[in-house]
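Support request, please re-run this one:
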Amino acid sequence: MRFHKYHALGNDYIVLNPADFPAWPEPSVPQIRVVCHRNFGVGSDGILWGPLPSQQSEFGLRIFNPDGSEAEKSGNGLRIFSRFLWDQGLVKSPAFTIETPGGHVQSVIKEQGRLITVAMGSVNFDSARIPVTGAPREVLNEKITVLDREFTYCAATIGNPHCVLPLPIVNAELAHRYGPHLETHPNFPRKTNVQFLQVLDRANIRIEIWERGAGYTLASGSSSSAAAAVAHRLGLVDRAVTVHMPGGTIGIEIGEGFAILMTGTVNKVAEGVMHPELFQVKL
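Re-run finished. Output below.
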């Protein structure tokens, strides 16, 4: 049961190739939870299950959170999976396409896989597509209350849902305190990823992240895409934005119709074999 572990700015994923797991039609929730557990398993922010067949793209990919839920799309996960395909010799060209449940993307390998650009698709602010409860609308500068505080927020989707909260200053404490309650707020029927956004200048933003199904994370590609798009939609930044996160920076280019090009690094951590005894733990 071979695994491959990578991180993208401290956001780490384990790649499991279905070809190495002929007895698994897909990983079960208990299997996902124990593999991702940082004490009882290998430890990660999620599992990338692929490559899978795809009718429209060259490769298919499914993305599982540590709690066993499935994510529609992950920018860091897509960069990591792209690096895995390159490292394994499964791609012959540095440009190729990947299908996720959240849509099709194109990856371009640079610097032998250490830097990767992904065309993430377009960000949309429509409440029905995100989804957000209430009448059809663009969800911009609305009020939301959690615990003891009222926030102004914007919502967006890039194949997965995001709640972006512009603030004068952001920090990890904000994400830890309010992130879990925003993730599960009734406004978001499929839950949501949460970004606390600070605009530094016309070309730089800072975000703290609470990911749906994963919790506090050091970096996120889809969160960077959504937060940069929201800041641009509000007129606060230009089309080229560097997103600063605790784990490092991601470059975002915002094209027409809020089409996103995301560029960031990937580092290989380890590869090895999981022992069957790992799965005797019940979490």
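The chain has two domains: 2-112+266-280, 142-265. The longest helix spans residues 75-87.
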